[in-house]
Design brief:
Elements lengths: L6 E3 H8 L3 H10 L5 E2 L6 E4 H11 L20 H12 L4 E5 L6 H15 L2 E5 L6 H12 L12 H10 L5 E5 L5 H14 L4 E6 L8 E5 L16 H13 L7 H13 L4 H9 L6 H7 L3 H4 L14 H11 L2 H10 L6 E2 H8 L3 H13 L4 E5 L8 E4 L2 H8 L4 H24 L6 H10 L1 H12 L9 H16 L2 H14 L5 H17 L3 H14 L5 H17 L3 H18 L2 H18 L2 H18 L2 H17 L5 H15 L2 H17 L3 H18 L2 H17 L3 H17 L3 H17 L3 H15 L5 H24 L3 H19 L29 H15 L6 E4 L4 E5 L2 E4 L4 H13 L6 H9 L10 H14 L5 E4 L4 E4 L5 E2 L2 H5 L1
Parallel strand pairs: 4-7, 4-8, 5-6, 6-7, 12-17
Antiparallel strand pairs: 1-3, 2-3, 9-11, 10-11, 12-13, 13-14, 15-16
Helix pairs in contact: 4-5, 6-7, 7-8, 9-11, 10-12, 15-17, 15-18, 16-17, 16-19, 19-20, 19-21, 19-22, 21-22, 22-23, 22-24, 23-24, 24-25, 24-26, 25-26, 26-27, 26-28, 27-28, 28-29, 28-30, 29-30, 30-31, 30-32, 31-32, 32-33, 32-34, 33-34, 34-35, 35-36, 36-37, 36-38, 37-38, 38-39, 41-43
């Protein structure tokens, strides 16, 4: 029998000790184990006796296999976190803690990291979920490493034996999972082991940080939820839910409707993986809708039926209860009180709401955060110094709320309401002021708390604050007017008014007034008037400014419905009252509304004066929101008139919208810009701008502005020949204005809809729409509406002419065409009430007050002109051709379009009609810009318009020349201007 060798090679020695050859060489250099040389080949070798001695010190070779990571399939939604942990490990980070609230997926992420590490080297996973002492930790870690804690009769300390074994595991990864119950003991051990085993990497999963030197923490958040407008199946939370469902039911393939329900389930469960997995397992017992209905009781309804899970993972309640029991008494008490919060909250708010010593509250918040029971909700605004904000998961909040007594819950809720109402009212008052964007950010950030105050007040849970519901609704009304949706503001005010019948009259009046504002935006004019009347009956004598505000809003409603005389009288009375009261802010708002009325009536100079007064007054009062609206309206007016300052005013209004974060003001400016793109003939850009504006109006819930933009876009679609789209948009516009009892816009939209039907050859439908429009208009003295009906009638006649031509009845067809052209010329001739085109601005009704291209086409116009020329004699040198779409100057190949230049078109009409006698400057300016226009003081719009007209007429051989008495139009010999009289000839 061969004798046992007395020395072993480097490779054999490394295998005997269970270490690498590099470790042996390192021990050789340090003197821990000395090598000798083989007498023949000179290779390094080690004495067996030395190796056995060292083996006894290190511990016996493993008797059982170490615990390796088990494959768990694809890791969903955590690739970024896995990459972060791996990159840190490669960079030399040796102690990492994956922290997070119960059920957030810490264990699965650590296992995935171990799988990656195990594929490239060695990795061990130790489950510490049942450990309660240091001895438990040592026993479980030794078991995971496959190490007995006694060797060769030597009684080494367990910690030292584990430490020595780890020192032989260069490059290994040890995952210490579920360390919540032994964090303190584990922290000491990991600190010692990491120092003694520099080649080993440690990853700990725990709700609490180890808080040792060299530790790097990864705070694990719930899985990402479905984002608005994206397919639900792309969200990691939905993917995990579906994956767990398919583990049980491989054939499950949800349809689109079920996917939307599943997306809402994941939102309700806030993307917490444990909750998602528990819920997915329950899908076998009913539909997704039924599961969603059970989720408000998720603590008890989500329970696992599996027998191979940790007790702490068997339900949400079990997962939370373990952490709750481990908390000190003070932290348990403060966590229970934290259940009053909704959404993120600051340490300052916690001190005001939770009660107790400020230092104790701050310490408890830090402790709860370090234990992952209070999560992070981002940072506060810069104004708050970027302080940390805390948040509770819904499941944690519900669990904590169960530990509040009824009396304590009432007290804490009252402190919470007082805290957020005071702050909210302060922010709401600053929204329209300089720096309003910061106040808007604060208010939006705390809106969940204000909604909670409102809900508790409506439910009668704030008996010591009976007016809390109305106060919260008013603060949220201010926020929602800036951010939307408007309908939510109405619902909140409805609920608060219904739940507080005995609230102070002044507060009720403010709430009714606020609701009237909202109803107006929603197009519900009749209920808005009722609210204003009810508010007026409650206004106390001590608050005259509230009565003035009511008068202003009544005037605004009158203007919306085309009752301009009543609107003007009411607004002028309100302005006088505001001036007497010294309320410059309200005076500026009223002046802006008066400008809108003047603009709608065609009194352009009066409108300009009112807008400028509003801009000045609101700027002085610091009301940037109303200043921005007035600037946008002024820019709109100046843009229609060709004023060079319009672009700068638009830019200033947009800058104000950005400064205070007002989305309605952004909508106003965007709509006005879209209108001017339309007028400039950039139809594609205008269409895109109108569509963007419509999307924003719908998002904000501003039905009134939605109707204006839909009407403008319908007109644009007509100009682009998209009759089907135009018809659908006009139907939408008509529904909005009919619901708002807006007679003028309803009549105008019906007239335009009639034109669309005529263009499509549906003459009976066109006649029906016109008949409805005439019935709705009645005998009202509304020049614009009458003009629109005349234009639609002309297009109906042209449609009838086509039908007659198709039947061979050329005589009636010619008569119909000539009558239609005459009607078009008369109706499109600008008057003092229609001398400006309209726009999406609040200063105008809608761009549908100018006639879009309905039935008449260029070929039809040329046919009529040829007939006229035949009556007038030889072919003239040039002509002005009128059709339903454009007013063009045609001279040989030169065509100049005046369709979207109403002021230039008006100048041409008047000069052509005046003939040789011409017109004096003052008369011409007043005709164009309204009777209040003083050309001696404000002649810029007139000069700009005249300069532009001269530039356009030049190629056609026409000239506007200055005479001793004014201006006249000079034409080449034989040039004929086809005006209304000629068309009738």
């Amino acid at each position: 029998m061969a004798s046992e060798p007395k020395a072993l090679s480097v490779q054999a020695a490394a295998q005997l000790l269970g270490v690498s050859q590099q470790t042996l060489r390192r021990w050789d250099r340090s003197g821990k184990l000395k090598a000798t040389r083989h007498p023949v080949n000179g290779y390094r070798q080690y004495a067996v006796a030395d190796l056995e001695r060292l083996r006894g010190l290190l511990g016996d070779a493993p008797e059982v296999a170490p615990t390796a990571p088990a494959a768990r399939g694809v890791l969903l939604g955590r690739q970024r976190e896995l990459d972060t942990l791996s990159a840190r490990r490669v960079a030399g980070q040796r102690v990492q803690t994956i922290a997070g609230p119960p059920g957030v997926g810490k264990t699965r992420l650590a296992q995935a990291l171990a799988e990656v590490a195990g594929a490239a080297g060695s990795a061990f996973v130790c489950d510490l979920g049942e450990a309660r002492s240091e001895a438990d930790v040592l026993r479980m870690v030794a078991g995971a490493l496959g190490l007995p804690l006694t060797a060769g009769g030597q009684a080494l300390a367990p910690s030292e034996r584990v430490q020595r074994l780890l020192s032989r595991r260069d490059g290994a990864l040890l995952v210490l999972d579920g360390a919540d119950g032994v964090v303190t003991a584990l922290a000491t051990l990991v600190a010692r082991w990491s120092a003694a085993a520099p080649g080993v990497h440690f990853v700990v999963t725990s709700r609490e940080h180890l808080r040792i030197a060299g530790e790097q923490v990864l705070e694990l958040a719930p899985l990402a939820l479905p984002a608005p407008g994206t397919p639900p199946a792309e969200a990691p939370a939905v993917q995990l839910f579906l994956a767990r469902v398919r583990e049980l039911y491989p054939e499950h393939q949800p349809g689109a409707a079920e996917l939307e329900l599943i997306a809402e389930i994941t939102r309700q469960l806030e993307g917490v993986p444990l909750a998602l997995e528990l819920a997915a397992a329950q899908l076998a017992y009913g539909s997704a809708g039924a599961l969603l209905a059970r989720l408000p009781g998720q603590l008890d309804s989500l329970v696992s039926e599996r027998r191979d899970v940790r007790p702490g993972h068997s339900s949400l309640r079990a997962a939370i209860a373990g952490s709750w029991r481990a908390l000190p008494a003070l932290e348990r008490a403060l966590l229970a009180r934290c259940s009053v919060f909704r959404g993120g909250f600051s340490a300052t708010a916690a001190e005001a709401v939770l009660g107790g010593d400020a230092a104790e509250v701050a310490s408890a918040l830090r402790g709860l955060h370090q234990k992952s029971l209070l999560g992070s909700a981002g940072s506060a605004s810069a104004g708050a110094g970027g302080a940390r904000r805390f948040a509770l998961l819904t499941s944690l909040r519900d669990f904590a709320a169960e530990h509040l007594t009824a009396a304590e819950a009432t007290t804490v809720a009252a402190r919470h309401a007082a805290c957020y109402l005071e702050a909210g009212e302060r922010w709401a008052a600053a929204l329209d002021q300089r720096g309003g964007a910061a106040a808007l950010h604060e208010l939006a950030q705390e809106s969940d708390h204000l909604l909670a105050v409102h809900a508790r007040a409506v439910a009668g849970q704030l008996p010591t604050l009976p007016d809390a519901g109305l106060r919260a609704a008013l603060v949220l009304h201010a926020l929602l007017l800036h951010r939307g949706p408007t309908m939510l503001a109405r619902d909140l005010l409805d609920a608060a008014l219904g739940a507080a019948p005995d609230a102070p009259p002044a507060l009720c009046a403010r709430a009714l007034t606020a609701r009237a504002e909202v109803l107006r935006l929603l197009g519900e004019i009749t209920p808005a008037r009722a609210d204003l009347d009810a508010a007026a009956a409650l206004v106390p004598a001590a608050e005259p400014h509230l009565g003035t505000r009511l008068g202003w809003l009544r005037g605004v409603l009158d203007a919306d419905q085309g009752r301009y005389a009543e609107a003007r009288a009411g607004l002028e009375a309100a302005l006088a009252a505001a001036t007497t009261q010294g309320d410059d802010d309200l005076g500026g708002r009223i002046s802006s509304s008066l400008g809108i009325v003047a603009h709608l009536e065609g009194r352009l100079r009066d409108a300009e004066i009112c807008y400028e007064r509003a801009v000045s007054a609101c700027h002085a009062a610091g009301n940037l929101r109303t200043e921005g609206f007035a600037l946008a309206n002024l820019a709109n007016l100046h843009g229609d008139l060709g004023h060079p300052g319009a672009d700068a005013e638009h830019s200033r209004a947009h800058a104000l919208a950005r400064e205070i974060g007002s989305r309605p003001l952004e909508l106003q400016v965007a709509g006005s810009r879209a209108h001017h793109l339309h007028l400039a003939g950039d139809l594609d850009a205008a269409r895109d701008a109108y569509r963007a504006g419509l999307a924003l109006a719908r998002e904000l819930g501003d039905r009134r502005f939605e109707g204006l933009l839909a009407g403008n876009l319908a007109t644009l679609c007509l100009e682009m020949g998209a009759l089907d789209q135009a018809e659908a948009l006009y139907d939408e516009t008509l529904a909005i204005f009919t619901g708002a009892a807006d007679r003028r816009r309803e009549v105008v939209t019906l007239a335009l809809l009639a034109g669309v039907h005529a263009a499509a050859g549906h003459l009976e439908r066109a006649r029906d729409a016109l008949a409805r429009a005439h019935a709705r208009l009645g005998d009202a003295a509304d020049a614009i509406a009458h003009d629109m009906l005349a234009l639609s009638q002309a297009h109906l006649e042209l449609g009838a002419a086509r039908r007659a031509e198709a039947a061979g009845d050329l005589g009636p067809a010619l008569a119909l065409r000539e009558a239609a052209l005459a009607r078009l010329v008369v109706a499109e001739t600008p008057s003092t009430s229609t001398s400006t085109s309209t726009s999406t601005s609040t200063s105008t009704s809608t761009s549908t007050t100018r006639m879009p291209p309905l039935v008449e086409r260029w070929d039809d116009a040329r046919l009529v002109v040829r007939l006229l020329r035949a009556r007038l004699g030889p072919r003239p040198a040039g002509s002005v051709v009128l059709d339903a779409r454009v007013h063009r100057l045609e001279h040989d190949a030169a065509v100049i379009t005046l369709a979207r230049r109403p002021v230039l078109r008006g100048l041409l009409y008047r000069l052509a009609a005046a003939g040789e006698r011409g017109l004096d400057k003052a008369s011409l300016a007043r005709d164009l810009f309204g009777p209040g226009f003083d050309v001696a003081r404000h002649d810029d719009p007139f000069r700009v318009s005249l300069r532009r007209l001269r530039a356009l007429l030049g190629p056609a051989g026409l000239e506007v020349e200055l005479t001793e008495t004014g201006y006249r139009l000079r034409t080449p010999p034989g040039f004929i201007f086809v005006a209304a009289d000629a068309a009738r000839a």
